[in-house]
User: Which sequence fits this backbone?
């Protein structure tokens, strides 16, 4: 229920992603590109051709700060929308507003890297972004690997591009209210993506879950390629405590960049038999 294609920062085309999921024995697949639904139609057609159930999706970038701590820096979190109407006008307009400014931000990232003594890799990163509107840090990380600045993607994000390191340019994304609202308006189910990845305190994570549910959010990713297996149980416990549905998604970007492929993860029932799968809400 969480995968990326070349329409955002995935390495595979929509068709390649669908065929990988089919080979791996998946019976359903959701494409959830960052802030765009550009490849949904292609993925849907490909899934139909191989007899794979397809769930339209998106992953929306959100800038969030706890309501009780409004003076703190914003945290970037991701909200996945599942089973959406990808033609909904309010959703499309919202996603367009989120995408705007990525090129300007990319140039600022490149300048900060140059100021830190690295070569100017803006053109390299831009060339790697199949959808130019979706230029992001992953494209810069890939450009750094290609230039030999770092040996792999993980090293790029350890030395650069993250908070406190050169190449990190914060960006104001959608509000949590807007992201959940767009998804619900499009008939979809809002899901908090990989909550353990944000490294929030327990109190802050509780605040996020509480606000998210009050806005109409219904699910949380428990099993994901962006969680260590040791993080499954704590997230599952919080999921149940807040009465949310559980989701399972690889957060797949490509074989060399993601820990697991679609269909190769632990089952929700392996983590906690009392979890209620989010796909029970699909009609």
Assistant:
């Amino acid at each position: 229920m969480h995968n990326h294609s070349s329409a955002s920062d995935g390495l595979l085309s929509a068709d390649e992603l669908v065929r990988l999921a089919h080979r791996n024995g998946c019976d359903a697949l959701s494409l959830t590109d960052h802030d765009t639904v550009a490849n949904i139609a292609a993925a849907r057609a490909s899934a139909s051709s191989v007899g794979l159930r397809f769930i339209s999706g998106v992953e929306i970038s959100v800038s969030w700060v706890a309501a009780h701590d409004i003076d703190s820096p914003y945290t970037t979190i991701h909200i996945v929308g599942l089973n959406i109407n990808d033609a909904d006008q309010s959703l499309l307009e919202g996603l367009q507003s989120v995408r705007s400014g990525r090129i300007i931000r990319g140039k600022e990232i490149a300048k900060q890297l140059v100021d830190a003594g690295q070569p100017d890799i803006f053109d390299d990163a831009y060339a790697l972004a199949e959808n130019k509107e979706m230029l992001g840090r992953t494209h810069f990380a890939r450009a750094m690997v290609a230039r030999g600045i770092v040996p792999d993607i993980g090293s790029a994000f350890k030395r650069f591009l993250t908070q406190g390191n050169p190449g990190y340019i914060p960006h104001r994304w959608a509000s949590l209210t807007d992201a959940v609202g767009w998804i619900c308006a499009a008939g979809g189910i809002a899901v908090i993506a990989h909550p353990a990845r944000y490294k929030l305190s327990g109190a802050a994570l509780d605040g996020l879950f509480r606000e998210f549910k009050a806005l109409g959010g219904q699910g949380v990713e428990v099993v994901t390629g962006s969680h260590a297996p040791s993080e499954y149980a704590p997230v599952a416990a919080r999921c149940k405590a807040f009465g949310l549905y559980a989701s399972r998604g690889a957060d797949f970007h490509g074989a060399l960049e993601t820990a697991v492929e679609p269909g190769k993860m632990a089952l929700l029932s392996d983590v906690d038999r009392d979890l209620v799968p989010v796909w029970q809400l699909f009609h």
